[in-house]
Amino acid sequence: MCLFCQIIAHQIPSYKIWEGETTLIILDNAQDMNYHMLIMPKKHVTNIMACDQETLSHLIKVIQMISNHCIDHGFTGVNILNANGKAAGQSIQHLHFHLLARKNGWY
């Protein structure tokens, strides 16, 4: 079972931001910056190429929802990042998107 599947199954603790029936959003524990979130399907899918349209479509809707929530609560922008495959820098083989909530003047 991959790391994210263990987090989804509550076998490993995480700081949950939002959870729906098919999607989980947690804070990244790398602590490289404030408000670094990971958005992932609860269903194990290795990357975007292996993802079915329904799951991917739902993920994008959740990404849009949380992005709008960030903007509505004082942030001025978001970065949305995704890597697919080891050569692209994907370190955990479970589809996920990084969402970084940003404010003007933050780097």
What key attributes describe this structure?
five-stranded antiparallel beta sheet, HIT family, subunit A, alpha+beta, 107 residues, 2 helices
Write the topology of this structure.
Elements: H1 3-8, E1 16-19, E2 23-27, E3 36-41, H2 53-72, E4 77-81, E5 97-102
Antiparallel strand pairs: 1-2, 2-3, 3-5, 4-5
If you had to describe this structure to a student in words, what would you say it looks like?
- The protein is built from 2 helices and 5 strands; from the N terminus they run H-E-E-E-H-E-E.
- It has 107 residues and is α+β, with helices and mostly antiparallel strands.
- It has one domain: 2-Layer Sandwich (HIT family, subunit A), CATH 3.30.428.
- Strands 1-2-3-5-4 form a 5-stranded antiparallel beta sheet, covered by helices on one side.
Q: β content, as a range? A: 15-25%
H-E order: HEEEHEE
The Rg value, from CA coordinates, equals 14 Å
CATH superfamily: HIT-like
Distance between the termini: 35 Å
Can you tell me the CATH topology? Answer: HIT family, subunit A
As laid out across the biggest beta sheet, the strand order is: 1-2-3-5-4
CATH architecture title: 2-Layer Sandwich
How would you describe the oligomerization state of the chains in this entry? Answer: single chain
Q: In one word, what is the shape?
A: globular
**CATH class category name:** Alpha Beta
